[in-house]
């Protein structure tokens, strides 16, 4: 198994090494040994990732391993912040117009920005040293959004080209001797370069106008290039590579999941009207899209089709979240575009229809680096993001221009086993401004994300020139408390099971022991109300009794 050399994958490899030394690994997802060690297999490639639902997730909870000190100088945030309960946010540093963030294997954060490509070296406490690795790309213009690491090289995009530089993790000096690997992008400067473990490089081209001619297939596409073997004069976007996806309007950060499948965010359609569906469908009718480009050469519908978020307020014809409809600019009498769009072979629907008018701008998959378990009472076993977020996406919404709300970072809930996004569950809000954005002042505009080696989330906010860090509140006793809770639950389960069996036996013997009332009382006593539960937790009393979930399988993170 190979991964791009980033901090998170380096950690993952370390885990794999440790596991590999001890385990005979087979392809069985239910492998009891693997599960007990806190890892599981996912996907076709049988990638091993930490499994939060196992009895012993791979967690690093020693205090001496945690970054618990504070930076010497506190930087005031530009505005009051709201952070997910049990987590803290602080300003790591300021960078002018920061955009995409990538953390290397030496825990340096590389940020594309209006200052160029900036390297942020951090110590454990969050003290920062910044340096500019690259101020611009010469004749090719400014450093644009896209940056990525692959196989000992750093790839940086300008609006018109992608450049390759030799790079050593932790390098804190000017990049030199760049080589132009890809030219003629004619981009907007918002595109990302993504390279999978096999050296396939993906680069999107926007549709510039919904009414343009799309038959040429030269826009609203993602092209794929082999970056393991780049021709001596580089690639030409117009002539070379293959069109990997059609009908996409990708912008901002793309991402790979644990199976190295490509994901991306589609730019929203400008607002439009469809008279037969109730006129102007903004703001709630039309979804933004998170797409999974699982198979090559598919069409994702742009600009012919749009995705319903919720058309109920507009029309009784609403088909529900994710339904596909024809875009009015492309409709005519000779073809039923709604029907056309509903068919998968013409148009793939998004993996996740996102809230309208959010300006989704970056996504990445958390790979379980330094992950934590715990709940509101125990706090976290580490400062990292939760283990049960492993191989699921975190999204940065920069917000919609002119809109006071919606600038935020969220986690998209996935179902554990099937690795399927759960549309019916609300997104977990991680981070936003506490107050609506005031006209005339800079809004919090999350545009880039990654985690550092301690599983802490790093977020770039372009308009406010801030780089934030989000960490979980750590408690040295969290693991012990969680274990005690789990044991108590298990005991409780067993006790209830016994009671049931006793009762069944009694009934089978035809004895009318009339112990029903007694049993109910007993159950009631055990089923503590939330307030007394809180008290017990605050007293750090480990023996928690909660019968509510006793029928569910117990896992350490099941709180
Ligand atoms: C009708 O619309 C479809 C889909 O947009 C298009 O392919 C077709 O060429 C159009 N036909 C006419 C006669 O305009
Ligand atoms: C994931 O873990 C967190 C605590 O770490 C918990 O609050 C949350 O409910 C869990 N989510 C799922 C889907 O189990």
TrEMBL record:
The Pyrroloquinoline quinone-dependent pyranose dehydrogenase beta-propeller domain covers 82-472
Supply the Gene3D superfamilies for this chain.
TolB, C-terminal domain
Q: Which InterPro entries match?
A: 6-blade_b-propeller_TolB-like, Beta-prop_PDH
Q: Where is the signal peptide?
A: 1-27
* Keywords tagged on the record: Signal
- Extent of Acidic residues compositional bias: 511-529
> Which residue ranges are recorded for the region named Disordered?
490-559
Q: Does the keyword Signal apply?
A: yes
Point to the regions of Basic and acidic residues compositional bias: 497-506
Domain of life, per UniProt, equals Eukaryota
This chain's protein is named Pyrroloquinoline quinone-dependent pyranose dehydrogenase beta-propeller domain-containing protein
Q: Which organism is it from?
A: Lichtheimia ornata
